[in-house]
């Protein structure tokens, strides 16, 4: 009996030890699992914070700004939400903040466009804007004084910011959505016109010159990822230097910048000028014929030195010494050189400081249609 008790006791001890060891081993494994999960989460968070490209990629891929446009629509993008109307305050700035609506009105009344065939874009969200802009910059727009500085309309500083967001910044965000969508449409159909956008004075960190968001930079970053575009040419023919996209994209070898601008006027951004691949200075007093000759040469050099997969053209009617017919010829040259090379072209209408600008832009678009470079009317079968 004594021997039996010894064996029994030893068996109990062995069983208890085994249970204890199994429990200990399981506890260690669970602890390690929890630690690895925590470490993985921490690493993922750290990775996102230290690798902005990963976060940018996630934002672009999750964006809703790209959507399928039905064949019953043409490649002209506009929304009534583009127009800025803020109790008449907008009239304190020389910029024509209703030109976008009037451009489309002319196109419709002249029989070149049907209202129902115009594409309405979505408004860019904060997540979309963060693809280029910093959170600090977007937060700065919560100050009405900051928006007043950017729009160059001092009274805006005295209005509650929720009104400024709704009446001023929301139209800008809508136009950003239009510019981004225009790239997708251009790649699919060969061309697209956003009757708005072209905010070429805004950088990732600073707005100015009536430009609150960097729609050109955003459009190109979306195209790089969502459209698998690897080379983009920016042709900026606004009289003002396009210092915004130059600052944001000038050191990116995938982007070629041709900028024809007047160095005697705003923004005097000498730092950004060093990022221009082809700089063509057009001073006050330049005739229409001389301007067009310079443009011909510049386009020849640009396409000789760079083979783009997409062309973003910031076209505007600010050069008062250039005749309306000269503007029409200018835009035709840009579209023709791109279409002949089968390069998708995005047109943005940018600034406009005279009431006559809307008519000139509409005339230019109508000429592009007559020349067969774009198609503003649908076949009856497609409608």
UniProtKB/TrEMBL annotation:
Q: Give the Gene3D superfamilies listed for this entry.
A: Histone deacetylase domain
Q: List UniProt keywords, sorted A-Z.
A: Chromatin regulator, Hydrolase, Repressor
Q: Which SUPFAM superfamilies match?
A: Arginase/deacetylase
Q: Out of the domains of life, which is the source?
A: Eukaryota
| InterPro entries (UniProt xref) | HDAC_classIV, HDACs, His_deacetylse_dom, His_deacetylse_dom_sf, Ureohydrolase_dom_sf
Tell me which cofactor or cofactors this protein depends on.
Answer: Zn(2+)
Which residues are listed as membrane-spanning? none
Please list the residue ranges annotated as the Histone deacetylase domain.
93-362
Could you tell me which Pfam families the record lists for this protein? Hist_deacetyl
Q: What is this protein called?
A: Histone deacetylase domain-containing protein
Give the species this sequence originates from.
Answer: Brassica napus (Rape)
């Amino acid at each position: 009996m004594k021997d039996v008790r010894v064996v029994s006791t030893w068996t109990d001890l062995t069983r208890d030890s085994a249970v204890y060891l199994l429990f200990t081993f399981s506890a260690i494994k669970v602890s390690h699992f929890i630690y690895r999960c925590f470490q993985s989460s921490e690493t993922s968070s750290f990775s996102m914070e230290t690798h902005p490209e990963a976060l940018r990629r996630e934002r672009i891929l999750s964006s809703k700004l790209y959507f399928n446009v039905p064949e019953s629509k043409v490649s002209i993008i506009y929304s009534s939400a583009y127009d800025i109307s803020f109790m008449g305050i907008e009239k304190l700035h020389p910029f024509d903040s209703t030109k976008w609506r009037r451009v489309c009105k002319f196109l419709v009344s002249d029989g070149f466009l049907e209202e129902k065939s115009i594409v309405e874009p979505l408004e860019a969200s904060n997540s979309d804007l963060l693809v280029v802009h910093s959170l600090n910059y977007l937060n700065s727009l919560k100050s009405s004084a900051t928006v007043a500085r950017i729009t160059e309309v001092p009274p805006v500083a005295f209005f509650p910011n929720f009104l400024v967001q709704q009446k001023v910044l929301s139209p800008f965000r809508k136009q950003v959505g239009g510019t981004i969508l225009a790239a997708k449409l251009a790649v699919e159909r060969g061309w697209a016109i956003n009757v708005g956008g072209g905010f070429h004075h805004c950088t990732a960190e600073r707005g100015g010159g009536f430009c609150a968001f960097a729609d050109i930079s955003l459009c190109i970053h979306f195209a790089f990822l969502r459209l698998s575009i690897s080379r983009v040419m920016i042709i900026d023919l606004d009289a003002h230097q396009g210092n915004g996209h130059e600052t944001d994209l000038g050191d990116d070898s995938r982007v070629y910048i041709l900028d024809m601008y007047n160095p005697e006027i705003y923004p005097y951004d000498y730092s950004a000028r060093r990022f221009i691949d082809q700089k063509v200075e057009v001073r006050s007093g330049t005739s229409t014929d001389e301007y067009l000759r310079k443009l011909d040469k510049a386009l020849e050099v640009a396409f000789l030195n760079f083979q783009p997969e997409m062309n973003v053209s910031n076209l505007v009617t600010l050069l008062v010494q250039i005749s309306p017919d000269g503007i029409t010829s200018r835009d035709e040259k840009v579209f023709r050189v791109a279409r002949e090379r089968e390069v998708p072209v995005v047109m943005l209408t940018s600034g406009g400081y005279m009431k006559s600008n809307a008519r000139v832009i509409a005339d230019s678009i109508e000429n592009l249609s007559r020349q067969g470079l774009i198609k503003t009317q649908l076949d009856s079968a497609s409608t």
